[in-house]
Amino acid sequence: MALRVRACKLGDVVDGELRAFAVPGVTWPVIVTRVDGELYAYPGVCPHEDVELADGELTGATLTCPGHGYIFELRTGRCRHDPGLELRRYPITIIGDDVWVDLL
Ligand code: FES
To answer: Which atom of ligand 1 is nearest to the CA of 67?
Structure first.
């Protein structure tokens, strides 16, 4: 069974910008963005080391971590620099104006 939490309102998501949203019970915020009309949600921490991804740079459909500059593909979560790393994409459900993400 999924652990679904409300991350934000749809209106809080800005095209091409990383936005971080605190979720009760979760250490790192959830980051949500929209690129080319598609919503993406991820853990707010890099899978390489504990660096906050909300401070990263979004370029098209890639996210560059501010820690060591590793680049992650938004669609797949794959890391271009280390194939052993993956940024796990959270499934999103829109209910009314709310964005819900499945953490598990
Ligand atoms: S902490 Fe993100 S690339 Fe190293």
So the answer is: 1
In angstroms, the CA 90 to CA 79 distance is 16
Q: From 49, 71, 73, 85, give the residue whose CB has the most ligand 1 atoms within 8 Å, as the site to mutate.
A: 49
Question: pTM (2 decimals)?
Answer: 0.93
Rounded-to-integer distance, Cα 73 and Cα 86, Å = 9
d(Cα 54, Cα 31) in Å, to the nearest integer? 6
66 Cα nearest atom in ligand 1: 2
CA distances (Å), 84 to each of 11, 59, 63, 64, 77, in order? 34, 22, 17, 16, 11
pLDDT in tens, 28-61: 999 999 999 999 999 999 999 999 999 999 999 9
